[in-house]
Design a protein that fits this description.
This protein is mainly alpha-helical. It is built from 7 helices and 5 strands; from the N terminus they run ααββαβαααββα. 20% of the residues are buried.
Amino acid sequence: MIQTERMGSIIVRLTIMMIILCGLIYPVVMTGIAQTAIPSKANGSLIYSNKHQVIGSKLIGQQFTSNAFFHGRVSSIDYNGAGSGSLNLAPSNKDLTNRIERSVGAWKKENEVPKGGIPIDAVTNSASGLDPDITPQAAYAQVERVAKAAHININTLKELIKEHTQQGAFGAKRVNVVELNLAVQRER
């Protein structure tokens, strides 16, 4: 009986100690290190329009509907970070087929179809539904629409795309739509 009471006391103390160590001390130390070493990333890679106003994040896409801006990927969750995720519909699912057909129709209405066809990322969503990037092909395919609506020279827009094209994981190139649209806004 005494042995069981002692063991119970040790378990309770160990539990309290681990809660304090792992639940309080470790997160505070790691947050402090991150804030010191990489403050921009630790705070969510925020994008500011000026020193005081946050307008987005480099990591989370936004929906742009104006023809004067580049449009990002389709988001099945309307870029709501609280509900991150895709619908995970199978390719044979009629709902997915219908959604893609609507996206293709809307894309064709807004943009000219390039020689190689509509870039796949222009009409499909990412796994998270929050992807801020599109392929350079999807960006170049929107240049004429944006040039007309924003009254910006096509060559200027192509240069902006080139400047904002980054090397992604596994060799895939990508363009951050939020950052590209900020550059478009500055050109207007």
